[in-house]
């Protein structure tokens, strides 16, 4: 079984929104570490992810770019041409991560989007239908929907990847699961305890069946990874990280469904399953969902999720760039070997 490892390359720092050396070094580091993909973020305080991805692709050779993208900011036929063009210019290394929800409710409004979250997810479903048609229709077509209306669009610009670039939908709400089940190639959400993850996988698969799909989306889980020489060393590293972040405070501004679910997990227990640690952290009211342990322990924990149907992991460490290198050297090979049935933990 193939397992996708997704890292994250920030485009800048607190001092500078765009830091070209950081982008270059970050994408090369992840490529050398054996990651498959890097996420390029989207937000009102971030540079254009299309431009960041193009720059990162020009300074790498193999690794894929997963662009975070909010439906509604660009008209879908325009976005279809932008994405298809970038797919050619990067040699077919582009995937799209639709983020209709968001960490803060204020973020969409900064770009003029005043729809409710559920309305944004409904719009995303329509947006994805238009994108797919713009990339696959053999003839000109028209569309008269709730959110978009156009006539006689001629789909000349198609992606290098066929039939379309891989489409991810991120979110933890029922609306996110419904849109992902109906339209996405992959569904991405926070990593939760195993029992809850099994419920999520089942729910999204049910949504796919309800939409008449014969194949459900793949699943991607988001974790922080804290490695150590052994489990005790890793736990001490995790405790130090939480202490450095300061006393947890919840100002009530992170009200998305994913954070609410992690808060519920942290309230129920600090430790879950083999290696999952959920603990409130920092002044924003967020919750750290970390897999903590030796490389073998964390690899086995990831394989527990693989057995549930999760085949992608968006992971990062707590100390960069050292942790990216360590994850690539010590963790990724263990998971790949076992997932392919060649090493401990297989089966």
Automatic annotation (TrEMBL):
GO terms for molecular function: alkanesulfonate monooxygenase activity. SUPFAM superfamilies: Bacterial luciferase-like. One of its GO terms (biological process) is alkanesulfonate catabolic process. InterPro entries: Luciferase-like_dom, Luciferase-like_sf, SsuD_RutA_monooxygenase. It is an enzyme of class 1 (oxidoreductase). Residues 14-311 form the Luciferase-like domain. Its EC number is 1.14.14.5. It comes from the Bacteria. The keyword Flavoprotein applies. Pfam families: Bac_luciferase. Keywords: Flavoprotein, FMN, Monooxygenase, Oxidoreductase. The keyword Hydrolase does not apply. PANTHER family: ALKANESULFONATE MONOOXYGENASE, BLL6451 PROTEIN. This is Alkanesulfonate monooxygenase. It comes from Saccharothrix algeriensis.
């Amino acid at each position: 079984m193939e397992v996708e490892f997704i890292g994250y390359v920030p485009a800048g720092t607190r001092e500078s929104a765009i830091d070209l050396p950081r982008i270059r070094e970050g994408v090369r580091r992840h490529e050398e570490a054996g990651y498959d993909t890097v996420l390029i973020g989207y937000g009102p305080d971030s540079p254009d992810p299309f431009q960041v991805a193009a720059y990162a692709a020009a300074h790498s050779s193999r690794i894929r770019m997963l662009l975070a993208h909010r439906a509604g900011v660009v008209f879908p036929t325009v976005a279809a041409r932008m994405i298809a063009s970038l797919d050619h210019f990067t040699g077919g290394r582009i995937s799209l991560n639709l983020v209709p929800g968001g960490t803060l409710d204020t973020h969409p409004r900064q770009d003029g989007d005043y729809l409710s979250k559920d309305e944004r997810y409904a719009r995303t479903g329509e947006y994805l239908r238009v994108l797919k048609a713009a990339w696959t229709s053999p003839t000109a077509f028209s569309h008269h929907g709730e959110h978009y209306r156009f006539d006689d669009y001629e789909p000349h610009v198609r992606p290098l990847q066929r039939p379309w670039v891989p489409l991810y939908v991120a979110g933890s709400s029922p609306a996110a699961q419904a849109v992902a089940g109906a339209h996405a190639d992959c569904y991405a959400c926070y990593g939760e305890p195993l029992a809850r993850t099994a419920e999520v996988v089942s729910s999204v698969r049910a949504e796919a069946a309800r939409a008449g799909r014969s194949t459900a989306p793949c699943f991607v889980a988001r974790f922080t990874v804290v490695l150590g020489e052994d489990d005790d060393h890793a736990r001490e590293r995790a405790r130090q990280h939480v202490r450095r972040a300061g006393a947890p405070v919840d100002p009530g501004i992170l009200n998305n469904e994913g954070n609410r679910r992690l808060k519920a997990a942290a309230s129920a227990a600090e430790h879950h399953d083999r290696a999952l640690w959920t603990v409130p952290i920092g002044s924003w009211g967020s919750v750290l969902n970390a897999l903590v342990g030796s490389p073998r322990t964390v690899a086995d924990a990831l394989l527990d999720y693989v057995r549930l149907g999760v085949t992608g992991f968006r992971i990062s460490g707590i100390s960069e760039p050292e942790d990216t290198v360590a994850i690539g050297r010590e963790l990724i090979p263990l998971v790949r070997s076992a997932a392919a049935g060649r090493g401990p933990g297989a089966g």
